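Incident log, support desk, overnight shift.

02:14 A customer reports that sequence design results differ from what the structure should imply. Their input is reproduced verbatim below. On-call engineer (initials T.W.) acknowledged and began investigating.
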């Protein structure tokens, strides 16, 4: 299939592109490089540097490359930043999706896989989170993705667009070529590894008084390869229907447990310091992945946290200054 990957130069996007190519698809990356890296894009993929808000550029990309389906990953995705600047998130995420969908419908492309997020659920009281758990986002980032999910539902009802929304939990780990390189880095595992590498003095632990066993936040960390694999399966669903799936393993680790595991994996000292809670962070997010396993036979192969951290560490050591 000819697939347009928006945000394909980003951390998760670049791995999705690798997996698409591995499965014999054609990948066309559409990325404005505001966050992504040209070097992250596999050489076999077509690369277009352009912005989603440029409707003509999207239409040109879809037509020129005879695109059959879109994997839409381009987005701003930082909870903390979204709390400080909500309109940035509604503008870039919701506005970007609106422009993309208009272009797709104009040229008759009616298949899309959306990177959605656990942040659309907010802070549910019962774990694990299933797809039927009510979505009540606690930050504008999650709200913006929920709005895009809603747009897709209406586009299905009205225009016959088929979509699969994949609600990611915490993507982590690396492949040999692709790893996490954000500026500024806000995610836990790369920040922990920066300390292990001696590039920062300590890890800030954002909140130690959450209602969790050790007081730090619990997340469901999923290897980026398992995450990317689900996109390939999702493309097949688009032939038949629209769907929503959670993507996580169903097991959670606290911030303190991640730091401890990173100490074991790297053999380095990793000092921590207590810091205030980060606005918008729910205490616990753990997925139920039952639906995607049952429906699509998604079979994660990289679920051990030590292996996830080890892959990220290997990439970090090989790319000490990022891409
Ligand atoms: N976190 C932390 N220190 C850091 C980065 C993150 O304590 O330097 C915590 C953060 O508050 C959250 C968890 O680690 O509870 C995972 O955060 P991350 O930003 O990696 O992912 P998110 O869950 O926000 O998507």
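02:41 Re-run completed on a clean worker. Output:
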């Amino acid at each position: 299939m000819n697939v347009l990957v928006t945000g394909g130069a980003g951390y998760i996007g670049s791995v999705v592109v690798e997996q698409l190519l591995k499965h014999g698809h054609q990948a066309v990356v559409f990325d404005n490089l505001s966050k992504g890296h040209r070097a992250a894009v596999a050489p076999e993929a077509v690369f277009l540097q352009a912005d989603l808000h440029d409707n003509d550029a999207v239409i040109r990309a879809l037509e020129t490359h005879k695109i059959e389906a879109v994997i839409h990953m381009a987005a701003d995705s930082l909870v903390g930043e979204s709390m400080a600047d909500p309109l940035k998130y509604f503008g870039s995420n919701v506005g970007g999706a609106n422009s993309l969908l208009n272009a797709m419908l104009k040229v008759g492309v009616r298949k899309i896989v959306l990177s959605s997020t656990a942040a659309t659920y907010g802070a549910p009281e019962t774990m694990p989170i299933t797809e039927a758990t009510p979505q009540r986002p606690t930050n504008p980032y999650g709200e913006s993705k929920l709005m895009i999910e809603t747009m897709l539902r209406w586009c299905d009802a009205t225009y016959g667009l088929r979509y699969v929304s994949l609600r990611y939990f915490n993507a982590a780990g690396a492949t040999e070529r692709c790893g996490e390189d954000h500026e500024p880095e806000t995610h836990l595992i790369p920040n922990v590894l920066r300390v292990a590498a001696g590039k920062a003095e300590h890890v800030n632990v954002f909140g130690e008084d959450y209602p969790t066993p050790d007081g730090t936040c619990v997340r469901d960390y999923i290897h980026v390869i398992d995450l990317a694999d689900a996109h390939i399966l999702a493309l097949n669903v688009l032939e038949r229907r629209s769907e929503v799936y959670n993507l996580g393993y169903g097991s959670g680790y606290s911030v303190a447990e991640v730091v401890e595991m990173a100490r074991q994996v790297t053999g380095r000292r990793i000092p921590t310091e207590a810091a205030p809670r980060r606005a918008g962070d729910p205490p616990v997010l753990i997925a139920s992945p039952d639906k995607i396993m049952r429906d699509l036979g998604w079979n994660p192969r990289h679920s051990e946290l030590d292996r996830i951290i080890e892959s990220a560490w290997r990439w970090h050591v090989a790319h000490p200054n990022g891409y």
